[in-house]
Amino acid sequence: MVKSTLRILLIIAGCLFVALGVLGIFLPLLPTTVFILLAAFCFARSSEKFHTWLIEHKHFGELIENFQSGKGIPRLVRIRAIAILWLSIGISMWVVGKLWLIVLLAVIASGVTIYLCRLPTCSEAES
Question: Whole-prediction pTM value?
């Protein structure tokens, strides 16, 4: 019972992440790559059918395969992700204006930036 409930929740989360990833293609402050990778994570643990569909997808498949195999992400994707991250965090810092929240946002953004910079980079031709 618990396994089937968890499986259903992971499938729902995966579908939500795919939807957010697709929206991110059109909305500049929504990160497509992160949501697609989260969807792949959810589907890998819940549905072989959905995971296979995502891996074989003509736009997202290669990105996921490169990431999961340890090849990394394309340099341009990394640069865009970091730029959008800091743009959106910067806007959030400006809007909230509370020092403790600004510090928290800066720490989170710094951690994500460090993580992205430590990922291997595959060439654009491979991706």
Answer: 0.65
Classify the C-alpha dihedral 46-119-79-89 as positive or negative: positive
Task: Report phi then psi at 57, rounded to 5.
Answer: -65, 135
Reduced to 3 states (helix: H, G, I; strand: E, B; else coil), residue 121 is strand
- Cα distances from 99 to residues 21, 88, 92, 103, in angstroms, run 31, 17, 12, 6
- Dist. CA 60–CA 8, nearest whole Å: 23
Q: Strands 121-122 and 73-74: what pairing?
A: parallel
Q: Give the whole-angstrom CA distance, residue 42 versus residue 49.
A: 12
pLDDT tens per residue, range 22-76: 888 887 667 787 888 899 999 999 999 999 999 888 888 888 888 878 888 888 8
Give per-residue burial for 31-61: e unless 16+ CB within 10 Å, then b.
bbbbbbbbbbbbbbebbeebbeebbeeeebb
Question: Whole-angstrom Cα distance, residue 17 to residue 36?
Answer: 6
29 within 8 A of 22, measured Cβ to Cβ = no
